[in-house]
Structures are given as structure tokens and as C-alpha cells.
Specification:
The protein is of the alpha/beta class and 202 residues long. 50% of the residues lie in helices and 13% in strands. It folds into 2 domains: 5-115, Resolvase, N-terminal catalytic domain (Rossmann fold), CATH 3.40.50.1390; 159-194. It contains 8 helices and 5 strands. Strands 2-1-3-4-5 form a 5-stranded mixed beta sheet, with helices on both faces.
């Protein structure tokens, strides 16, 4: 049976705090389960910060498939916001990395604990759907108020201008030259060259 490689992650928010208690419990836990472990320690790092040195290093090792399970003392040691926790949990699930949390009694290495990933995944999807709904509602309200949605047009092209673009392209003028001359994008010049009616630059 393959020995699991554990990432023991500990964190304290201020420099005068120590991680000793967390480390002792987590080391003992890994030893009881026969796991090899590597310690990742963020000292004096707020949980509100997503870019913490040890956390960043741990996530890199997880993506390199060097870690099989994250072992933490409490969920708030790993992430303070639900959004950040869900992001980490989803990535771990995708990469096949388990999470063990002693304080909250979470252990996704066990069948009963795998429900945690499903619950967190459902919450993450709910959060995304709520965000999409807020965006849709905001756009609908803006349209009702007569506001333009999306980026404003760089400029409008008349039928005469489109004919000129086509003529210059036929003479060998490059898309890049015409885009620069007319103040638009190369993509739009290519579209104008093949479009029978005026288009707006988006």
C-alpha cells in the first residue's frame, strides 16, 4: 500500500504567536496514520491574505502531484473566507488531494468524509449561480435604464468606408496598415473586408 504524502499546514496571524501546538498535534496525527509529511508554516500571516508564502508553496507542490493530503488543525488556518476555502477545496478535489481537519473532524480520505467535498462543491456552485444572477439582474436593470451594455464602439463604418477598405485590400494594403490608418482592430478590418453591410467596432 502506498504511503500517503501529507502537507502539514500551520498558520498564526501575529509574530508573537507560535505554531507549536498545531504542529505537535498534526505531526502526531500523521505519525499515527503512517503518513510521511512536509511542514508548511506561515508565521505572522493573516488568514484574510490569499497569497501567503507557505500556502503558495504548498499549492505549487500539490499541483506538481507531490502531495496526497492536506492536514490542518482548523479550517480557518487554511482560509478565512468561504470563497477562498471553496477555491482550495475544488482544486484539491480535481487533483485527487484529500483534506483532513482535526478541529472540525473532516477527513476526506474516509468514505464518510468524502461527502464534505460534495457539500463544498454544491456551495461553490450556489455561490457562482448567485453571482451570475446578480450580473444578469444588473445588466437587465441597466438596459431598462437605457444604458449601453459592454464596451463602447471605437467607431462606426459607413457603406462607403467598407467599400474603400475592400478596394484597398484588393490593391494589396495589409490588414495591419488599414487598422492603424482607420483607428480600429485588425480583426475588424478582416470582418469589414468580407461583410456586405456596415458594422460597429465592438
Amino acid at each position: 500500500m502506498k504511503i500517503k504524502r501529507a502537507a502539514v499546514y500551520v498558520r498564526v496571524s501575529t509574530l508573537d504567536q507560535q505554531t507549536d501546538l498545531q504542529e505537535t498535534e498534526l505531526r502526531e496525527y500523521c505519525e499515527r496514520r503512517g503518513w510521511k509529511y512536509v511542514l508548511y508554516r506561515d508565521h505572522g500571516q493573516s488568514g484574510a491574505r490569499e497569497n501567503r508564502p507557505a500556502l503558495t508553496e504548498m499549492m505549487k507542490d500539490i499541483r506538481k502531484r507531490k502531495i496526497d493530503v492536506i492536514v490542518i488543525w482548523a479550517l480557518d488556518r487554511l482560509a478565512r473566507s468561504l470563497k477562498h476555502l471553496l477555491t482550495i477545496a475544488e482544486e484539491c478535489k480535481t487533483l485527487g488531494v484529500d483534506i483532513v481537519c482535526l478541529k472540525q473532524n473532516i477527513d476526506t480520505t474516509l468514505p464518510a468524509g468524502r461527502l464534505t467535498f460534495q457539500v463544498l462543491g454544491a456551495v461553490a456552485e450556489f455561490e457562482r449561480e448567485m453571482l451570475r444572477e446578480r450580473v444578469r439582474s444588473g445588466m437587465a436593470a441597466a438596459k431598462r435604464a437605457g444604458k449601453r451594455i459592454g464596451r463602447p464602439a471605437l467607431r462606426h463604418f459607413s457603406t462607403k468606408e467598407i467599400e474603400r477598405v475592400r478596394s484597398l485590400r484588393a490593391e494589396g494594403r495589409s490588414v495591419r496598415q488599414l487598422a492603424k490608418e482607420l483607428g480600429t482592430t485588425q480583426w475588424m478590418i478582416a470582418k469589414l473586408s468580407a461583410t456586405p453591410r456596415p458594422l460597429n467596432v465592438m
